[in-house]
Batch of 2 targets.
Target 1
Amino acid sequence: MPTAGEKEFAQFLRDHRARVTPNRLTVFRAMQQSARPLTVPDLAAQVEDSGLNPATLYRIIETLTELEVVHPVLQDHQNVAYELLEPFARHHDHLVCRQCGRTVDLYDCRLEETLKSISDDRGFKIDFHQMEVHGLCPDCQATPRR
Amino acid sequence: MPTAGEKEFAQFLRDHRARVTPNRLTVFRAMQQSARPLTVPDLAAQVEDSGLNPATLYRIIETLTELEVVHPVLQDHQNVAYELLEPFARHHDHLVCRQCGRTVDLYDCRLEETLKSISDDRGFKIDFHQMEVHGLCPDCQATPRR
DNA sequence: TTCGCTGCAAACGGTTTGCACCGCG
DNA sequence: CGCGGTGCAAACCGTTTGCAGCGAA
């Protein structure tokens, strides 16, 4: 199943009594085209030529977060980045290499299954989860440090 | 196995050629006594009566993060909080209820096992992971929303 | 005695807010 | 036409930085 696109996004907004505006479409497009989560300043740079005002950008991100179109993830040790959620992007987790810093998306349903059985045990009903695994990727294990 | 305490922390600092100072001990104690991850402003409030300077606090957190005594986790939609890592705290993940907002610590080794087998498949060597599961806790499932 | 750590105070810059205008529905 | 969304500009405040003095080792 492919992920939902611009058309579905527009409809989603209408369904939630939020207006479909050029600014919102611009932001949505930028996030869809990015391979990785974007911070607000990242986004600002990305959509720079559209002349989108910073204040507006913050308000759009806030709205999209409330509507659960995007959600925040931790990027560096102090910075928050945003990425699309289902159905606008496939869910995945992240493998982050401590040496080369590359992030690999991890699509694996075993994790979901384990998670489901754990939370079933506790009567907790899952909306979504996010996970980040830090370690050393195969390439960097082969390469001596520095 | 209990977690390492103040004495081990002091030794850890010495081993890393970092000095054992009253400020650092104060911060360590505050984090150890807290049930949940703390933001820097949280910490500032917590250790207020020690007269610790904000700038110093930020520098201590930075140092402890580099030494991997603590690490950042996402708190709200925009705020980063810090928590102790092993061996100063047991590793655990978080269940966050979207209605009451409470965070429950999750200690479960099934997750570790699944994670290990997934990363073994990819030749990725794990240092640590962090996960946050969002959903509805048993209490809130029983209670109608709002 | 040395150099890492700290307090102070100023600077910085990302984020928020108030307000008037615009334009989607 | 009404109200949600936007741009602008100022205010805010969490965080960073430079520097001089202190104190852990």
Target 2
Amino acid sequence: MNNIEYKTKQKQAILNFLKNNRDNHVTVNDISVYLENNNCHVGITTIYRYLDKLLEQGTVRKYTVDNSTSACFQYVDPSKTCHEHFHLKCEVCGKLIHLHCSHISELCSHIFNDHGFKPDMMRTVFYGICSVCSQKQENNGGNL
Amino acid sequence: MNNIEYKTKQKQAILNFLKNNRDNHVTVNDISVYLENNNCHVGITTIYRYLDKLLEQGTVRKYTVDNSTSACFQYVDPSKTCHEHFHLKCEVCGKLIHLHCSHISELCSHIFNDHGFKPDMMRTVFYGICSVCSQKQENNGGNL
DNA sequence: TTGCGTGCAAAGGTTTTGCATGGCA
DNA sequence: TGCCATGCAAAACCTTTGCACGCAA
């Protein structure tokens, strides 16, 4: 009845993995596979339940990228406001690019100040074509 | 082999529902339930397949909104299908905001010139909270 | 008549739930 | 020793696929 949270191996392993991948988003499967390969089996039920808690605490962000059926999670650095980090998704090769760029926070401030809308860049994904794929398309003369 | 698209009752019923709800996003289940209640049964397979087509045609947009496990779709007015438009989606009320703003095209140029990524703003949606909903949240002192 | 469209059933994948057991405090 | 945490299995969902039949053109 006290609602005290216990410290366990599983939780620490999950949180460590999230922290070590703070620059990337990871899926439940990513976590499960990684831990498995490191001789630290954790049931997916546990992963889901712990991520739920971390989500409530704001320790982690959840978002979904188009075409991906499963949810993505990312550790949120308490000191850092993640306004400077955003995502580009290449629609050709599917690569997800993580970009640190001050221009984006300027844009966010502008949208908020002048348009009253408060963007959540952790949830927002820019769709387009990455440099590698656009180069390929040029070389092919526009054919697929 | 001609790839001609046929007109059917089912498609018309789905498209009508989408048009009548152009101010909201709807799920496959919403569509299915509504049609069922209107004595117009359409299998979910058909709904999924038709939405896929509409998506390719750009007649409809697909979203994933937090807290919802299933995908959301929203009719896009053909007259508003303009490359100068950017889209903001409020995650609280679901409203889709069309925005004209030179700052975003500047950002796109910057992303392309300095990062080599060519954003497709027709496909990109900014998620966040609109002014009305953020005001409401403030008035509630942060409670839901 | 042709071939696209439809819908059922089944498969595939992700997430949640029930329940007995394990383990922190 | 209390309770929370864990993990298996099963259930609950969402979405896709296969296939036979229906139906627009």
